[in-house]
User: What shape does this take?
Amino acid sequence: MADKPTSGDSRSVELQVVVCELADEHYGLDIARVFEIIRHQSITPVPRAPVFVKGVINLRGRIIPVVDLRCRFAMPETEPTKETRIVVAESGSTRVGLIVDSVSEVLMLQLAAVEPTPEVAAGADSEYLRGIAKLGDRLVLLLELDGLFDVEEQNILAGAA
Amino acid sequence: MRLTFDLEPGDDRLFTDESLEQIERIEQGLLDLEHGQDPGVVNEVFRAAHTLKGSAATIGHRRMAELTHAMEDLFGAFRSGTLSELGPFADILLATIDVLRALVAEVKEGETLTDAPEALTAELRQLLSTATAAAAARSSAKPAPMARASIPAPPAPSPATALPAAESPPGADLDERPEDGITNIAVAPLIQRLLSDAPAGLEPRSLFVCRIDPTSEWQAVRLLQLVLEVEETGALAGSVPGRQEIESGLGSSLLAILARGRPSELTELRRRLASIDDVVSVEMVAAPLSPGQVDSSEMACSVDLYGPAESAPITASRSDDRPGAGSPSRDGRQAEPGAGVGGLPAGDRAAAVSERMKAAQQTIRIDVSRLDELMNLVGELVVHKTRLQRSAQQLAIRLGEDPLARQAEEDCQQFARIAGQLQDQVTGLRMLPIETVFSRFPRLVRDLSTKLDKDVQLAMEGKETELDRSVLEEVGDPLSHLVRNAIDHGIECAEERRAAGKPLPGTVRLTARHADGRILITVEDDGRGMDPAGLRRVAVERGLMTIDAADAMSDAEALRIIFTPGFSTARVVTQVSGRGVGMDVVRNNIERLGGWVDIASTPGVGTIVSLSLPLTLAIIGALLVKSGTRACALPLTGVVETLRVEPKAFGRVRGHNVLTLRNRVIPIEQLDSALGDPPRPFATNAKGFVNLVVVRSRDTEMALAVDAFVGQHEIVLKSLSGVTGQRRGLAGATIMADGAVGLVVDIAALLERSASVAAKSAAVA
Assistant: This one.
C-alpha cells in the first residue's frame, strides 16, 4: 500500500471514474480508489454511530462501515431498490461502503474537461467535490473521496462505526 | 534531529524484530550465566552480540554498533579466558541491554531516544581494559559464580585441529586457543565437501581459497560478492559455504570456490577477486578431479570456517553420504593420512551445520496481519460451510431420493470436514508458547530481588505450553503484577526466613499447563502467606465492608478481599507494589479476557494464585440473541443465566426496572438501549414473557432484556477496529450463520457504565 494511487495525481491527463447516480445527479469516483461494487445487503446498525453511518456489513469476512451518501449530502433518504449498490472504496485510509442509488458506467475523463466547482455550487460542502466534468449535456460531479469525511468523522469510521 | 538509517522502507520492522530477538538471547544468556557458567551459553551470547553488531553496522546505526562492539569484546575476552568472570559486569551488561532496546526503538521512531550509549560504550571498554590488565597480573583465577575458571572443557566442539597438528586431542585446553576465541578448522574438509558436492567432470578445475578480514562488518556481503563475481564469468562450479548458506548468515571469513578452468586461465579472475574490499588473500590451486585426491599440504591452512565454534558437540546425523567428510571411525573407511583426518570432525560439523541450515529454512516469518486475514477468511469459509450444508439438506428434502441431491449432501459433508481441519490448522498457526511471556521474568525477579535485598529464585514449568497470540499479548502485565507481588509481599527477607527455618533462597514458581481446553497459569511463592483474619480486619478498617459482613465470610472468601479495589495489605507502600491497585486490576484484566483468578494461601507457607484463561480470544463461546433489528452475541463467560419473566413481576426502584432474583436486586435494561439505542418498551413473546439474560462482571449483575434467544454458538470474534468498540460496550463483531454481522457485547464494559446505576438501585433496595 506504499504507493497507493492518490486522486490528486496531476501527472495523468485522464481519469477513469465509476459513475453513480444519486437523486438524478451523476457522481464520479476515482476508479483507483474503488475496490468493488456490491448489491445492497442487510446492514447491521451500530449503536451511537453518526447518523450518516447506516451500520456495518460483512465483506468476505471483513467488517466494514457503510455510509449512506444521500444522507451525507442531505438528500432525502429512500428505501433500497433493485438498483441500489454499495460502492466499496477507500476514503482516507479507511475502507468504507458507500450506498448509491445505482451505478451506471465506467468513464474515461480528460482532466482538461474537468472544471473547478463553481463558487455558487460550492458552499460548505465543496471539500468533497474535486470538480465538475461536462460530458455532452450531462454533468458529472467528481467526488473527492478523501474529503468525504472530516478528520473526526474519519476517526469514527476507522474506529468502527 | 531526525535519524535516518540505511534501510528500505518496511525493513525497519525486520531489523527491529531480529535485533530484539538477539538482545533477548543475550539477556537470557547473562541471567543463565549468573547461575553457573556454561561455555555453550558464553558462545551464544558472543554470537548474538556479534550478529547484533553486524546488523547495526549494516543499517548505519553507529551508536548501536559501537555499543554492541564493546559488549562483544567483553564476551570475547571472557570466552577466550582472558577475563575470568562476568559477574562484576552483570549489572552494567544488563543496563546495556536496556539501552540497546532503546537504540533499536530509535530505528522505528526515527529519533534519538537515549543518550546513554556513548558513555556506556566508553565504560565497557574501560572496564574491559582494567579487568584484562588485572587478569594478566593475577596468577590464578578464583572460582566464582559466572567464572569460567576451572574448565570442564566444552565437550570437544570442533577440536583445534589446525593441520598438521592433527594429533591435538579433542577438547584441547581452551586457553591455548587463539586470543580471539576462534576455533581453527582445517580447510581440507571444506574442500572435500566442495568436491563431493560438485562431482568432477573431465574438465580442469581450479580452487580459490579466499580469506576475508574477520573483523569486517560486511563479511556476508563480501562472500556473496566473491561468489557472484565468479558466477558472472560463468565459471562457477560450486562454493563452500554455498550461496544460500551465505545468505542465511552461516558464512564466516573463509570461502572456497570451485571454478571451471585451469589456474593459468583464471589469473584475471583471481585478480578481480583479490580487489574486492576486505578480501585479505585469494589462493588458487588446480583442483583434483576427485575428493580423495586433495593434497592437504597445499591446503594446510587453518582457518575460521563457520565462525565461532558450537559449544555442544554436533554429531552429524548422516555421515555416510559425504564420502570425503565422513568420520573414519564411524564408517570404517580410513581416509588417507594428511587428507584431512584431523579435520574430519569438523567435516562432520560442516554437514551438521548444513543440516541445521536446512532446518532453519523450514520456518518463515509471517506478518501477523496476514495471519489475521487468513483467520478472517477461514471464519468466513466456516460460515459459508454452514449455509451450504443447509442448502444441501433442503435440496435433499425437496428432491427426495434424487442421487444428485444425495451426492451434493455427501460432498458437503466432505467439504465441511476439510473446512473444519483448515480452521484448526489456522487457529494453530496463531499459537505461541507462553515462553514468550515467561522470558521476561528472570530479569524481573533478578532486578526486584536485588532492589528489595531478598534472596529469591525463580522456577518455571510448562514454558512450551501454547496459547493464542491474542491472549498472550494480554496476559503479560497481569502476570508481572503477580510476580512482583509474590516477591514484594510474599517472600520474606533472609533473616525472617532463617528464623522461621525456611529454605534460602525463597522460591517463586511459575507454571503453565493446558486443562479442559483452557490454559492454567499459576504463580506460587513459599513466602509468608496471607492471614484471612488479618485481611478481614484491614478490610473493615479501610471501610470496605462492615464487621458483620467480614465475619460472615469464609476464609476462602476472605482471601478474595485482596481483589477489592483500594485494598492493599502492604505495611509500607513500596516502590514496587502495594498501592492497592494491583490485584483488582489483575482480576479485572483477566476477567475481561474471559478468564478467572483463584487464590489459595496458608500463613507461613505461601500463596498460590491461579489464572484460568481461554486458549484463544479469536473464537469464543457466545449466547446469540436478537435485540431490535440486529443479532448480538453475549460471551458465555459473562452470562449467568437466561430467564423468561412476566413484566408485572418487575419491581421499580427510582424509575428503574429491577428484578429480584434469589434475594438480589438486579437492574433490568433493554440490551439495545444499554448499548446506546433509544429506549423502547420491552418486547414480549407470545405468552407475554420478557426474555432476560442475566450477565455478570466482577460483582455487578444486570438483566438484559432481549427480543429472542437464538442459541449458543462458537463465534469468530472480529475487530470493529480501534478501541471505539469498548467505549460503546462492544467487544467487536462476528459473522452470523446467515452472513449478516452480529455485534459482540463487551459485558464488562457495559456493566461498568451501568455500575453506578446498579449500585444506587441495590443500595436503595
Summary: Chain A has one domain: 14-158.
